[in-house]
Write a sequence for this structure.
């Protein structure tokens, strides 16, 4: 068929986000929404740690704060089709604003969930994997598109 890399990325983004959503909806149907959330948090914690570790192993072998972490956020955002991403650095705090998120759109359409708690754990564990557990971060999800805000806004602070 000869698909371009851009076409393959588009298919991969679609597949990853739909698998995540399908898995969550299936778990909620069989086990209830609360249990589905517990499982989803654990899945994203594990995925984000392993993803950060993969980035460190294969792409960012000597990560430095905050540049490498911002790069990791951008890579993860591309894979998950989190567009409309604005990242700023204010001292030791990274501010991430997202205005267009594929996962958020699916959540809004399904009307069953809110990605805020998963977002927090994902960014915490991404740092753990990327920095081989030598750097930890605290994450606050301040605004949420699923709550009617104009964006999702996350603050990420390196712990001393």
């Amino acid at each position: 068929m000869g698909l371009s890399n851009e076409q393959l990325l588009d298919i991969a983004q679609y597949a990853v986000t739909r698998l995540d959503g399908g898995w969550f909806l299936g778990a909620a149907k069989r086990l209830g929404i609360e249990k589905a959330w517990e499982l989803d948090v654990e899945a994203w914690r594990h995925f984000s740690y392993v993803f950060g570790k993969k980035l460190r192993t294969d792409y960012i072998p000597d990560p430095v704060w905050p540049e490498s972490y911002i790069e990791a956020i951008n890579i993860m955002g591309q894979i998950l089709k989190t567009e409309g991403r604005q990242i700023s650095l204010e001292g030791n705090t990274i501010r991430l604003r997202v205005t267009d998120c594929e996962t958020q759109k699916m959540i809004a359409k399904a009307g069953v969930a809110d990605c805020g708690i998963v977002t927090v754990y994902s960014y915490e564990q991404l740092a753990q994997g990327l920095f081989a557990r030598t750097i930890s971060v605290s994450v606050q999800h301040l605004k949420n598109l699923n709550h009617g805000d104009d964006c999702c806004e996350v603050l990420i602070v390196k712990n001393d």
About this structure: Residues 5-31 form the longest helix (27 residues). The beta strands are 82-90, 93-101, 137-143, 152-158. The chain has five helices and four strands.
